[in-house]
Design a protein that fits this description.
The complex is a heterodimer of chains A (431) and B (559).
Chain A (H helix, E strand, L loop, with lengths): L24 H17 L8 E5 L12 E4 H24 L6 H20 L6 E2 H27 L7 H19 L2 H25 L4 H26 L1 H4 L7 E3 L9 H5 L1 E3 H19 L1 H11 L1 H6 L4 H20 L1 H5 L12 H11 L4 H24 L5 H19 L17
Parallel strand pairs in A: 1-3
Antiparallel strand pairs in A: 1-2, 4-5
Helix pairs in contact in A: 1-2, 1-3, 2-3, 4-10, 4-13, 4-15, 4-16, 5-6, 5-7, 5-13, 5-15, 6-7, 6-13, 10-11, 11-13, 15-16, 15-17, 16-17
Chain B lengths: L2 E10 L2 E11 L4 E5 L6 H8 L7 E6 L2 E3 L4 H6 L2 E4 L11 H6 L13 H15 L14 H14 L4 E5 L7 H16 L3 E6 L2 H7 L2 E6 L2 E6 L5 H9 L19 E9 L5 E10 L4 E5 L6 H9 L6 E6 L2 E2 L5 H6 L2 E4 L3 H5 L6 H4 L11 E2 L2 E2 L1 H14 L16 H12 L6 E5 L7 H16 L4 E4 L3 H7 L2 E6 L2 E7 H8 L4 H8 L4 H10 L3 H8 L32
Parallel strand pairs in B: 3-8, 3-9, 6-7, 7-8, 13-20, 13-21, 16-19, 19-20
Antiparallel strand pairs in B: 1-2, 1-4, 4-5, 9-10, 11-12, 11-14, 14-15, 17-18, 21-22
Helix pairs in contact in B: 4-5, 7-20, 14-15, 18-19
The chains are: A mainly alpha (431), B alpha/beta (559).
GO cellular component, one term (chain A): plasma membrane
Pfam family, one (chain A): BPD_transp_2
InterPro entries (chain A): ABC_transp_permease
Chain lengths: 431, 559
């Protein structure tokens, strides 16, 4: 009997050319960026106006000169770039292909440059690139710490919604301790302890009592908000000099490295908290993927039963990771007070913890990815600040919305298929 | 190492999963633990592996009593286990999976991945496993994943290796290789406990057989026992292993699939340009190893999955443009692969589960309200017809055993006038009695003239039910075997041929290869006195009472 006698047997060697449908999100977003530039920014600049970008902070050995560009011409070129990218992405979608990742970066940069060019057009003030970037780094510090805290917890299977509370409690503890003991450095010790305490509470409820982790996290956030607010209004206000004096950490300028044009003053003229951040990011990435701790943490977060069958104590690992994650977030909270030289104020974390969670998701649960996402949010926030000081035509309230808008677009649009740790949020019981 | 279990008892609430079980495994023997789904085999092995704490009894290793607080202790004592559902982290590499829990580390706990790789390569080479230490687990076929599990156990110097239903996910050829590996392990002095409910394998592999039923040891058997003897020992009554069915009388090609493709979001072709049809009054079985596109095929027919290309026609009407509800109304009956998540709503009552598809139609609905009396009356009628054993139709369906829950699903899906029946894994996890019943109902539906499409990974089921067999591999149909023709020309459908097709070998080539080279199990079939592979013309006599035997109430729920 041959295949031909079998009804409807088909030639198995004939491959198909079908490809999955690709969403038109990407070209639409590109086209919107081009359209906004064309319709809102272009009409706002005069034909003979120009924009000046400043690349030096003034203290380095070699400083780059200022760059002055004709505003209208630059905007036209950037619009063409974005429109071309949109067209190409649309063609790719028709062919059921994805736009390459670098195209996102190109369009993003073009849009930011267009915005800066528009904002600085015809003004005597320059666009200070160094302080724009330095401020972006500073604003992303609590986001980076928060996102790393999320990575540590969620990789082991515990959802840490309490990052917000950990940041706030860290900020509070850092301010109070530094003020009472007379040095900002004490704050760096108190903050992680405070964060770890919140982490321990989360772990206790989530692991021992298997309470829904998101609910515990939200309740802890509310608890910390109320507790710090109460203490702020009573103890801290009664004796401000003792409990809530500003104790800024000093800036430490790293010799030689700080002299690199543009990046030097941005990266290497910072407080010890930011240098600590660099170390934690690198160490965490190495440990997570190259150490016994990391291997076991990931196993517990992906397939706890498999970890159990090789003798790993799943819940013990989760508890310790949640406490460690809390400590990292707490340390990040120190940025709000001693890190930026402020006294403690009510609700001063202002939702940063939730943006940090978004950064963690956008970074696909990887330390480096989370840092990149946190930097993006920090940059968008500082962009708003810088633009309102230069005095652009955009209302400052709108500019304050910028990081949140970017969060929504980034998380909803550009993430594609992200895969959280498989056992995230699911309590582990033996039988 | 000699392993002894004495009087092991494990109780879950009202259910005695293990009732004073005694078992002795001699060094270097392959000891089969035979029993139905839910008989308590896996529970026993989880006790042995330290995952469960026994309520009574003790474990002896070389005569010394031991107590395991967790799997770590069991592993340290030389017990290795390959679970039915592999204990591998999908995103890890092979080397990382093998190292997990016993990581070779340097300063600051940094992994020595080279050493982990070397461990894998060494064992892999010794037994000819051909496993790449840097491959990601999720990219490996299940047969290779199983070898990774064996490497994991061996790298920890396992003296007793427990294999829990190891062949459930393998092609016949992979099963053959596994049998070879088990032989080599035995030669090297490892004892193997082989848990299964498949009689053919037991007879081909085991040195000794212990049969468990409802949590108790009911006897020992030798591998020379016939399949019928083993089956009646396992089930506790005489059973008929093949389905009584008349030759098919196929009508017109009522259900047609043309160029159907389904693509995963990541671009993988899950269903690749399928073209076939199912005629009225015939059963087309889609055979293949789990994960070769059968699930998606079944779901795309009901509309749970979107088709990316192709056409589906039922009695001349195009299905793809219709919603799931319209397709159900058009007469499609659908038995989903995963009963507990897709087949029933666990917290709903039996009566409610029986009208999940008809809740908004007469007579159950009047305007916006339900008519509870009608719903209950319907439930009484259906449960009677489908022999569902229950206490009250208002009890949650989660109180039913797997077999009875599946009967509820069948009762619901077959209560409408059907023009197409699609059933995925209709008997997965069921006891023998329920399997007989489900098969009978499916054949009865065929005899009504309904086109029937069965998706199954169990070759026994495929050979029992099918009038034609479409073998799927990587989203494509490798070939369609006409059972009647094959019986006439070759004296029956060869398992070896189907097995080769399940691994992607085209039909004619598979037939030639299977004729030349028989697998261990294929050979055992010829040597032994097991039932013939497929002989629908010559049904074995069957007692009609057998199908109505009550399902054991102690049967465990599959969850």
């Amino acid at each position: 009997m041959s295949a031909a006698t079998v009804p409807h047997a088909r030639d198995v060697d004939a491959p198909t050319t079908a490809r999955p449908k690709v969403s038109v999100k990407t070209p639409v977003v590109y086209a919107l960026a081009a359209l906004v530039t064309l319709a809102l920014l272009l009409p706002g600049v005069g034909a003979d106006e120009s924009t000046t970008f400043q690349f030096s902070a003034g203290a380095e050995w070699f400083s780059l000169p200022n760059l002055t560009v004709p505003a209208l011409m630059t905007l036209v070129v950037l619009t063409v770039v974005m429109a071309a990218a949109a067209a190409w992405a649309f063609v790719l979608v028709r062919q059921r292909r994805h736009a390459p990742p670098w195209l996102h970066v190109v369009v993003g940069l073009a849009f930011v440059l267009a915005f800066l060019t528009y904002a600085g057009a015809g003004k005597t003030s320059v666009i200070p690139m160094v302080s724009l970037l330095a401020g972006a780094l500073a604003l992303s510090v609590p986001l980076v710490f928060g996102a790393l805290s999320g990575v540590i917890c969620e990789r082991s299977g515990i959802i840490n919604i309490a990052i917000e509370g950990q940041l706030l409690f860290g900020a509070f503890a850092a301010a109070v301790t530094a003020s009472a003991l007379g040095s900002g450095y004490w704050g760096l010790i108190a903050a992680p302890v405070a964060g770890a305490l919140v982490g321990a509470l989360l772990a206790w409820f989530a692991v021992s009592y298997q309470v829904n982790q998101i609910i515990v996290g939200v309740v802890l956030n509310t608890l910390i908000l109320g507790l710090t607010g109460f203490l702020f209004a009573t103890v801290l206000s009664d004796n401000k000099a003792l409990w809530n004096t500003r104790m800024p950490l000093p800036r430490l300028r790293i010799p030689v490295l700080a002299e690199i044009p543009v990046l030097g003053p941005v990266l290497f003229n910072q407080t010890v908290l930011i240098y600590l951040m660099y170390v934690i990011v690198v160490v965490l990435n190495v440990m997570l993927f190259r150490s016994r701790w990391g291997l076991r943490t990931r196993a517990v977060g992906e397939h706890p039963k498999a970890a159990d069958t090789v003798g790993i104590k799943v819940n013990v690992r989760r508890v310790w990771n949640t406490i460690l994650g809390g400590a990292v977030a707490g340390l990040g909270g120190a940025f709000f007070t001693v890190g930026s030289g402020l006294a403690f104020g009510r609700e001063m974390s202002a939702g940063t913890g939730f943006i940090a969670l978004a950064a963690m998701i956008l970074g696909k649960w990887n330390p480096y990815g989370a840092v990149a996402a946190a930097l993006l949010f920090g940059f968008s926030k500082n962009l708003g600040n810088v633009l309102s000081t230069i005095g652009s035509g955009v209302p400052s309230e709108l500019l304050l919305m910028l990081p949140y808008l970017i969060t929504i677009f980034a998380v909803a649009g550009f993430v594609g298929r992200v895969r959280p740790p498989a056992a995230e949020g699911i309590p582990y019981t033996k039988s | 190492m000699k392993l002894e279990l004495q009087g092991i008892t494990k109780v879950f609430g009202p259910l005695v999963a293990n009732d004073h079980i005694d078992l002795v495994v001699e060094p270097g023997e392959i000891h089969a633990l035979l029993g139905e789904n839910g008989a308590g085999k896996s529970t026993l092995m989880n006790v042995l592996y330290g995952l469960y704490d026994p309520d009574d009894g003790q474990i002896l290793l070389d005569g010394q009593p031991v107590r395991f607080k967790g799997p770590g202790d069991a592993v340290a004592a030389g017990i290795g286990m390959v679970h039915q559902h592999f204990m591998l982290v999908p995103v890890f590499t092979v080397a990382e999976s093998v190292a997990l829990g016993y990581e070779p580390t340097g300063a600051a706990g940094v992994l020595k991945l080279d050493e982990a790789r070397r461990r894998v390569t060494e064992i892999s080479d010794r037994f000819g496993f051909h496993v790449d230490p840097d491959a990601l687990i999720e990219d490996l076929p299940v047969g290779v994943q199983q070898r990774v599990e064996i490497i994991k156990a061996l790298s920890r110097d396992a003296k007793v290796l427990i294999l829990d239903e190891p062949t459930a996910v393998l092609t016949p050829q992979e099963t053959d290789e596994l049998i070879g590996i088990m032989g080599e392990l035995k030669e090297s002095g490892t004892s193997i406990v082989f848990i299964t409910h498949k009689l053919r394998e037991v007879r081909a592999i085991a040195d000794r057989i212990t049969v468990i039923r409802r949590g108790k040891v009911v006897g020992e058997a030798s591998p020379t026992s016939t399949e019928t003897e083993l089956a009646s020992l396992m089930v506790g009554r005489s059973v008929n292993l093949s389905v009584e069915k008349a030759p098919a009388e196929p009508g017109v090609a009522a259900f047609q699939v043309e160029g159907l493709s389904v693509i995963a979001p990541n671009g993988t072709l899950l269903v690749d340009n399928l073209t076939f049809d199912v005629r009225g009054g015939e059963i087309l079985c889609v055979a293949g190893v789990q994960g070769n596109g059968q699930t998606e095929l079944a779901e795309v027919i009901l509309g749970l999955e979107e088709a990316d290309a192709g056409r589906l026609t039922l009695d001349g009407t195009d299905l793809l443009a219709r919603s799931v509800k319209q397709r159900l109304r058009a007469g499609i009956g659908f038995v989903p692969e995963d009963r507990s998540t897709d087949g029933v709503v666990a917290s709903f009552s039996i009566a409610e589960n029986l009208i999940l598809d008809l809740y908004d139609t007469e007579p159950f609905a009047r305007g916006i309200s339900l008519s509870p009396a009608k719903v209950a009356a319907n439930a009484e009628r259906r449960t009677e017809e489908f022999d569902v054993r229950y206490t009250s139709v208002h009890d949650p369906i989660s109180t039913l055993s797997g077999g009875n829950a599946q009967k509820v699903v069948l009762a619901r899906e077959m209560s409408r006038p059907l023009r197409l029946l699609v059933a995925s894994q209709p008997t997965r996890g069921l006891d023998v009695g329920s399997i007989e019943f489900v098969h009978k109902r499916i054949v009865a539906e065929r005899d009504n003239g309904t086109p029937v499409l069965i998706v199954s990974t169990e070759l026994d089921e495929v050979l029992n039910l099918a009038d034609r067999i479409a073998v799927m591999y990587r989203g494509r149909i490798v070939g369609i075997v006409d059972v009647a023709e094959e019986n006439a020309q070759a004296g029956g459908v060869s398992r070896d041929m189907l097995g080769l097709m399940m691994a992607g070998v085209p039909m004619d080539e598979a037939r030639a290869q299977a004729a030349e080279h028989r697998s261990v199990l294929g050979q055992a079939d010829l040597d032994g006195d097991g039932i013939p592979d497929a002989a629908p013309e010559a049904p074995t006599a069957v007692s009609t009472e057998a199908t109505t035997t009550p399902t054991p109430t102690t049967e465990r729920q599959d969850s």
